[in-house]
Amino acid sequence: EEVEALLSAGEAVGFKQSAIRNRGTLASNDTRRTSTSAFLPERKPGGRSSADADPIERFVRRVEEITGITRERHERMQVVRYEAGQFYRPHHDSSPFSINRSVHNRVGAGRILTAFLYLSDVAEGGRTRFPKVPDDAARTKKPARAPFLSFQPRRGTLLLWPNALDDDPWTNNAFAEHEAMAVDEGVKYGANLWLLQYPDALVIKSWGLGK
Ligand SMILES: O=C(O)CCC(=O)C(=O)O
Ligand SMILES: [Fe+2]
C-alpha cells in the first residue's frame, strides 16, 4: 500500500528529466544520470495526517523510528523512474560541504543518511551497486563476477546507508558512493528519502523548491 501511494504521488507530480548538481549549479541532460524523477510535496512537521488514512505517512513514521531523525530533517521525497537502458552513474548523495559550513545553502549538503525504497521489482539489470565496497560473499560464490556490494531491486525493500562519517558528519563516507546500473528490462521505480544534518527548510528555500 505504501509503495502504491508513493507511485501515485510520483505520477501526480509528474516525472521530469533528473537534474544533477555540477559544482553547485543544476544541470539537466547530464550523461551521468538519464532517469526521470519527481519531488513530492513537503511533509509539514505540524501537519501530521493520520497514519491509518495515509500510507506515505506510515512510511515516513517508520523511517523516523528506524533512524531517530524526524521529518524536520527529511528532504522532500524524490520518486525516481528508470526505463530500459536508463542509469545513474557512480555518485555520492551528499555534496561536499567545505565551501561555507556556516551557511546551509547548498542542496544535497548534509545528507547524512539515504533511505532508498524500491517501488518495483526489476528482473534484469537496475541493481544499486556500491563500487567501493567489496562483497566477499559474492566473490566466494562467483570469483569472476560481482565483487562489489550490489542489490537487485525488490518492491518494498528499503536500503539505508550512511553518507557521512560518524565522528565528522561534514565529511563524506567514501564507501557510500553508489550507482544505479542500467535497467535491462521493464521499468524501475524507487523513492529517495534523504536524512539531513540540519532541518530542510533552508535547503528547500535556496533551491527554489518551496513556495
Ligand atoms: O536507483 C537506484 O538504485 C539508486 C538511486 C540513486 O542513487 C539516487 O537517486 O541518488
Ligand atoms: Fe544516489
Automatic annotation (TrEMBL):
<dbReference type="GO" id="GO:0005783">
    <property type="term" value="C:endoplasmic reticulum"/>
</dbReference>
<dbReference type="InterPro" id="IPR006620">
    <property type="entry name" value="Pro_4_hyd_alph"/>
</dbReference>
<dbReference type="Pfam" id="PF13640">
    <property type="entry name" value="2OG-FeII_Oxy_3"/>
</dbReference>
<dbReference type="GO" id="GO:0004656">
    <property type="term" value="F:procollagen-proline 4-dioxygenase activity"/>
</dbReference>
<keyword id="KW-0223">Dioxygenase</keyword>
<keyword id="KW-0560">Oxidoreductase</keyword>
<dbReference type="InterPro" id="IPR005123">
    <property type="entry name" value="Oxoglu/Fe-dep_dioxygenase_dom"/>
</dbReference>
<feature type="domain" description="Fe2OG dioxygenase">
    <location>
        <begin position="73"/>
        <end position="197"/>
    </location>
</feature>
<feature type="region of interest" description="Disordered">
    <location>
        <begin position="19"/>
        <end position="54"/>
    </location>
</feature>
<protein>
    <recommendedName>
        <fullName>Fe2OG dioxygenase domain-containing protein</fullName>
    </recommendedName>
</protein>
<feature type="compositionally biased region" description="Polar residues">
    <location>
        <begin position="25"/>
        <end position="38"/>
    </location>
</feature>
<dbReference type="GO" id="GO:0031418">
    <property type="term" value="F:L-ascorbic acid binding"/>
</dbReference>
<dbReference type="InterPro" id="IPR045054">
    <property type="entry name" value="P4HA-like"/>
</dbReference>
<dbReference type="GO" id="GO:0005506">
    <property type="term" value="F:iron ion binding"/>
</dbReference>
<keyword id="KW-0479">Metal-binding</keyword>
<dbReference type="InterPro" id="IPR044862">
    <property type="entry name" value="Pro_4_hyd_alph_FE2OG_OXY"/>
</dbReference>
<keyword id="KW-0408">Iron</keyword>
